[in-house]
Description:
It contains 2 helices and 3 strands. With 97 residues, the chain is an alpha+beta fold. A hairpin with a 7-residue loop joins β2 (21-24) and β3 (32-35). The longest helix is centred in the C-terminal third of the chain and has 17 residues, at 80-96. 19% of the residues are buried. The model has no long low-confidence stretch (mean pLDDT 83).
Amino acid sequence: MRTGTSIPSEHRGRLLHTVYGWYALTREQADLGPFDTAEKASRALTRHIHIYRGLNNRNPDDKARMHLHDSEHCSRTNCALCVEAKVAQHSMMLVAV
């Protein structure tokens, strides 16, 4: 990611770049995206946080924990982590051929 952009530092861990574009990871049922730039994904995340602030309470220690994502059993819609896993799986299949 370029330095000097308008992306707040607290968003950087929640933005994910895939071959389809940039996603903003949320705690709700669907992630935001894809967007053509990280800046657009960050702006969407800012709007999303303002809308959901106070509605989705989390433990402040949650961000310090490791997160393993099971894309085979994920029930989220438009999940950026599932997109990333499927692209990686497809890439590995191409290399194995």
